[in-house]
């Protein structure tokens, strides 16, 4: 089917999965932004594009909604696994996928009707080393490190599982406000100590 796609979500994180060979146009950053637009496009947190691989059963390129490319996404990979099975690109329940952030092993689960119902992905070993994110702080591990952002002094932990994450916990019993999420999220994502940007988790 020309220009067809598969859409799914993992914990509310939604992606469009597709095969670029089925498209009548080339996936460019501009077109990715248009497709992911919540008002004028299909609306998505990103695009999972099937890609060739010489190292794994399948390859995938993971695009952010701004058109840039991500290393890995746990939710995205689970959606991609279901896409592969539901579109009969594979009938195997265990297979591997090559991402920009490394190889991932997938274990697919099916229901009593034989439909893909869930997927488990092996994201790899977590590391707190600055070079893995990367992060420019001159420390051995990014655990409980101070950061100044949006006029505030906060404590963060940086971790990579093939893709970078900046995690900040709020004081116990307090919740982040919507205004804080909207201001701190982008500021942390684009902070100067993260030269390639980072995912952000504001936790409680």
TrEMBL record:
Keywords: Isomerase. The keyword Isomerase applies. The keyword Metal-binding does not apply. GO terms for cellular component: cytosol. Transmembrane segments: none annotated. InterPro entries: DAP_epimerase_DapF (IPR001653). SUPFAM superfamilies: Diaminopimelate epimerase-like. GO terms for biological process: lysine biosynthetic process via diaminopimelate. GO terms for molecular function: diaminopimelate epimerase activity. NCBIfam families: DapF. Belongs to the diaminopimelate epimerase family. This is Diaminopimelate epimerase. It comes from marine metagenome.
């Amino acid at each position: 089917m020309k220009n067809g796609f598969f859409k799914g979500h993992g914990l509310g994180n939604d992606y469009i999965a597709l095969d670029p060979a089925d498209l009548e146009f080339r996936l460019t950053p501009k077109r990715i932004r248009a497709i992911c637009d919540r008002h004028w496009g299909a609306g998505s947190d990103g695009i999972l594009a099937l890609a060739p691989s010489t190292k794994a059963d399948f390859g995938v390129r993971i695009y952010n909604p701004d058109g840039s490319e991500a290393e890995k996404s746990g939710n995205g990979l689970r959606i991609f696994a279901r896409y592969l099975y539901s579109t009969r690109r594979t009938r195997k329940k265990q297979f591997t996928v090559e991402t920009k952030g490394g190889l991932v092993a997938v274990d697919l689960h099916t229901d009593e009707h034989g439909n893909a119902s869930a997927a488990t992905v092996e994201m790899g070993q977590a590391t707190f080393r600055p070079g893995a994110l990367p992060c420019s702080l001159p420390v051995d591990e990014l655990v409980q490190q101070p950061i100044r952002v949006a006029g505030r002094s906060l404590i963060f932990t940086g971790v990579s599982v093939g893709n970078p994450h900046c995690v900040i916990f709020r004081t116990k019993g307090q919740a982040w406000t919507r205004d804080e999420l909207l201001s701190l999220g982008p500021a942390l994502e684009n902070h100067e100590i993260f030269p390639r940007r980072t995912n952000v988790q504001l936790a409680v």
